[in-house]
Amino acid sequence: MTDVLETILDGCVCVIDDDAEIRGSLDSLFRSAGLAVALHDSPEAFLIAGPPQGPACLVLDVRLPGTNGLDFQERLAAEGKDIPVILITGHGDIPMTVRGMKMGAVDFLPKPFSDDQMLAAVATALAKDRERQAGAQSDAKLKDCYARLTPREREVLGLVVAGLMNKQVAAKMELSEITVKIHRGNVMRKMEAQSLADLVRMAELLGVRDAKVQRFNI
Amino acid sequence: MLQGIRKSFSLLYWSDSDGSMQEGEMGHEAERRRLAAQAQSVATVLLALGIFALDVLSPLQGAVAVLYTTVVLLATRAHSRELTLSAGFVCALLAVAGYFISHDGEPLGSPAVRLAVSLVAIAVTTLVSVRHQVAAEHRRIADQRYRTIFNAAGFPIWEGDWSQAFAMLQGGRSPDAETIDLAARTAVIGDANNAAAALFGLTRREELVGGTLLPFHTPAAEATLGRILQAMIAGETEIEEETRFVTAQGEPVDVLLRVTLPPHRKEWKQVLVMALDVTERNQTHARLAQAQAQLTHVSRITTLGQLAASIAHEVNQPLSALITYAKSGKRWLAREAPDAAEVADCLDHVVSNGTRAADVIARIRALARRADPRQDAIDLGSLVAETVELLRRDLNTHDVTVAVTIPDALPPLTGDRVQMQQVLMNLMLNAEQAMAQVAPDARILRVEVVTETGGVAVHVRDSGSGIAVEPESLFSPFFTTKADGMGMGLSICRSIIESHGGTLGAANHPEGGAVFSFRLPLAGQLESAA
């Protein structure tokens, strides 16, 4: 408890609740924990404001005038806006909770909630978002590297990670073994791969392994 | 006294069944009267014989026989036509007999003339007496009939002598407290029937006769007496008033009084008072009103039950904010550099949210409390607004859009605010339920307050499918269109509105949907109507 109380978190919490007092109280709570806060009285206002920079999470009231927080959560997921969601409600029931958690909510907190629970949930959500954003960054970098490869080099990469030896690659591409070695060296350098194993992992992430080719069944 | 003698006389000598004897006031008094009557009848016979002797034996040449008329007159006191006629006949015979004894064989002269004059006198006296007797008989029968009705009536009747009050009030005094007190003290009860005695918890009517009603008076009775005197002074001869007495045992008794001043009795010597014991009726009314109040309360609680989820949310919301503000205030204090401004802000919100929760609870509690109907001044506009606020969350949940029209200046109404809110709540929740089958964006609840001549009307209109049955049948008890409905809501609403002197009705709106309207009279008009 004490550790959470003393933890200063980093990130932005978006709050959607139609009750101004609930919004205000969450604002004060999150700011006391060193978080940035963006308050919205409706899902529309949140969409208009756009997603915040850096790691963020969304505290969403289930019961909103004219709409339902769970529906909005579903809509966000469908649109690929995968910001971590913490659901809050005045009167939750089991079906509601199950639906929210299945949709990937970080937590489902009934009002009144304890500050520790809320901050713990927010901490989890922000960590998740940070991880997601980091993952997204490395993906982007990998794609950048792959884009720098020539068509030949990509072909070599596909065959190498399929497990073919240089000799086999050369035979398949009708090139000399020396040329294949040069292409392979270029691939390792451009992809910033430290080892063949590293390259295989990257190829898996990029999905560029030539599936038609096998080492012992050419 | 004289009447008593007459009664005894007739009883002794003639088998004339005198009804008044049946009242039977026997004892020493009656015995004494009987003897006196006996003596009188003997005296009458002796008188006749004396006159006869005087006529026959005395040397008087006067018309002694004329004295027989006194015998006839005495005989009339026996109160029998036959007896009077017989007396006249016997006296005439005695006169003729006296003539023949004294003057038999004499040529016709002055004695014969004197006899003729005497006979004429006897005849005239007899006839006049008989006529008087017939008239008296009629009066007696009428009086007897009155007495029979008086005594046999199943309801209390008494006669009072209010002549002292009359004298006082004729002297120009207004019926103030002192006069009323004096009137009550001096209004002696001349007669009363057994029902009257029973009304005041007495066993015999004699306990009432000769006294006053003072021992049975209550402050309410004093006030009623004042109003009765006022009306009588104003010349009214029949007055109806409802008041309360206490019986000899100290039990309160509610009566409806009808005071009649007989036209031929001047100076209020014989004021006739009839009373109807309405204690039981009033108690039944009170019990009915109590049952009604309980039912109204139960129905209100049922309505609140329907709103339980909304109400819980309404209270939970500020409590939730309050807790979070308090925790966050603690955090601001626990920081390395505590932020006093933030803490103060948190505390302000703790207070405002606590107040908000308390307000919600106060609103609900007013509805849940069981209290006797009150007479408050009602601002219908704010009441409608408050009720909409109370139901806002429930209406939002059911996607109902509310349109409220309230004129700026509304005339004041009086009544029970809570009951009025109950009616509004019921009508609005009914409207909400009526629109359950309608597309969410077409669910519109219109509440309109309109000033009308002499009152205010409130229309609650929904955009549902309207009323499929005869609208009036909605108001009969136990009529319901809902699976879990009790069917009492509208029936109770109507009785609430009617107890406020208003009307509640339902109709289909020409543009679709149902409209429930109630009209309430203005504050002043309600009092004058009540």
List keywords for this structure.
heterodimer; A: 218 residues; alpha/beta; five-stranded parallel beta sheet; two-stranded antiparallel sheet; 10 helices; 13% strand; disordered N terminus; B: 530 residues; alpha+beta; five-stranded antiparallel beta sheet; rod-shaped; disordered C terminus
Care to describe what's here?
The complex is a heterodimer of chains A (218) and B (530). Chain A has 218 residues and is an alpha/beta fold. Chain A is elongated and about 75 Å long. Chain A has helices at residues 2-6, 20-32, 43-49, 69-78, 94-102, 115-147, 151-161, 166-173, 177-190, 196-206, and strands spanning 12-16, 36-40, 56-61, 63-64, 67-68, 85-89, 107-110. Chain B is of the alpha+beta class and 530 residues long. In chain B, helix 11 runs antiparallel to helix 12 (340-368). The model of chain B is unreliable at 1-24 and 526-530 (pLDDT under 50). Chains A and B meet through helix 2 of A and helix 11 and helix 12 of B.
Strand order of the largest sheet of chain A: 2-1-3-6-7
Shape of chain B: rod-shaped
Mean pLDDT of chain B: 82
- Total helical elements of chain A: 10
Radius of gyration of chain A: 25 Å
Q: Percent helix among the residues of chain B?
A: 55-70%
Helix content of chain A: 55-70%
Please provide the count of β strands of chain B.
12
Query: Roughly how many Å apart are the termini of chain A?
Result: 61 Å
Summing up helix and strand content along with how strands pair, one would put the structural category of chain B as: alpha+beta
**Main interface by residue count:** A-B, 24 and 30 residues
* Span of the ends, CA to CA of chain B: 54 Å
